[in-house]
Design a protein that fits this description.
By secondary structure, the chain is of the alpha/beta class. Helix content is about 30%, strand content about 25%. It contains eleven helices and 24 strands. The strands form eight sheets. A five-stranded parallel β-sheet has the order 5-2-1-9-20, with helices on one face. It has a four-stranded parallel β-sheet with strand order 13-12-11-17. The structure holds flavin-adenine dinucleotide. Flavin-adenine dinucleotide binds near residues 16, 39, 111 and 323. The site of flavin-adenine dinucleotide (FAD) has 32 residues, from helix 1, strand 2, helix 7 and helix 9.
Amino acid sequence: MPLNIPESSLERLVIVGAGFGGFTLAHKLQNSKYQIVLLDKNNYHQFQPLFYQVAMAGLEPSSICFPLRKSFQSNPNFFVRNAEVEEILIDEKKVKTNFGTIRYDKLVLAQGAKTNYYNNKQFETYTIPLKSISEALYLRNKILEDLEKALMIKGDEDISPLLDIVIIGGGPTGVEIAGALAELKKHVLPRDYPDLAIHKMDIHIIQGADRLLPSMSVQSSHRALKDLQNLGVNVSLGKRVQSIQDGQIQLQDGSTLEAFKIIWAAGISPQHIPGLKNECYHENGRIIADRFHTVKGLHDVFVIGDMSYVTTDKFPNGLPQVAPVALQQANHLSKILKGKKLSPFEYFDKGQLATIGRHKAVVDIGSFHSSGIFAWLSWLFVHIYYLIGVRNKLIVLFNWFWSYVFYDQALRLIIRPFTINKSNKS
Ligand SMILES: Cc1cc2nc3c(=O)[nH]c(=O)nc-3n(C[C@H](O)[C@H](O)[C@H](O)COP(=O)(O)OP(=O)(O)OC[C@H]3O[C@@H](n4cnc5c(N)ncnc54)[C@H](O)[C@@H]3O)c2cc1C
């Protein structure tokens, strides 16, 4: 059954995914010569770099998500559909979704990436990922619920497993979560739970590589390590997890850790979409494209963002899977689709940032490295700048100001999803 989209004389461009790449592209092509159909399994755009602040009860989900319909309200040739794409039917020039099929004249794939558990079922079953706003909320609830459970325990029973948190992965996400948790433990939880032995909460970060933030400079790695250790985080470098079961983590060196909350921040893999020939995929699962974003062998199908595999002289192993790549590719592709003659895409790396805590961050811009307050302010500025929606920017700024001045985060609510027991319904 076809999706309900009116036919028009305009060429139809279907964009799959309204993340950094797809949303930006759609925005830049508003009022162009195309009928645009934007498909996403969610009805909002999510700002992934701030997921961890939702998980740490610092921000509300609505302040880092943006409703898609609001952005494209005034354009009669623009259609948003809340649908999950399941397959591309290349010969018919259609995509199949969970609500029916839709034909395209041109197709852009921008579905991003998903959590990579390296085919290990245990890692998938026993750890908490942070790749969607729902997962961030789940983590927030779990942290708060376990604190409440720990309060109920009387006598000599050990409450540590309920309090302790283990983060697997020492890239930017792992480091940012660890720093935020340490700040929460230091400034907020002792006031909320005066009758709980919060000092028993241990925060661990386990990193397989021999340094944190391996994609950044050695100076930044060292600084992040020092800052986290000063905040009381237990950092294990060069250690790999072998197995996880029922709160028990077994490391490859034989040591073990116990925790009911194990956060998985150890990698991503590209979203897979069936229907393309095998030759279109690189061995890492990303879709091979040229520097005009065209999928190998298909002149009317394009791919951008974390899903795409594009090599350049500066990046012979593929472009990094970060937001600026998706944004710059979307900008470049929008010009190509408008008919401009452009030179091949070149990624301009403006630098990398990671925050560790209050006044603590690291920044690398080319051979320039900085840390401390300058890096922290740069981090704040960059995140506010790229966040979508003026309202969101103001709310996030206000929340940051509030927690900076009052050492407080105001959103420590446990909101459980409502479920209907169908057998009880009349
Ligand atoms: C916790 C976290 C922190 C991060 N921090 C940073 C950071 O600090 N700096 C940085 O540069 N990068 C960061 N990143 C990476 C950055 O978010 C990604 O590189 C970027 O989002 C990629 O953009 P994209 O457009 O390719 O995909 P995404 O932004 O992931 O968007 C993909 C979209 O596709 C939709 N979708 C997926 N599958 C389907 C389907 N089958 N059908 C319909 N819709 C679908 C999704 O709902 C989503 O809206 C972080 C990522 C995470 C998870």
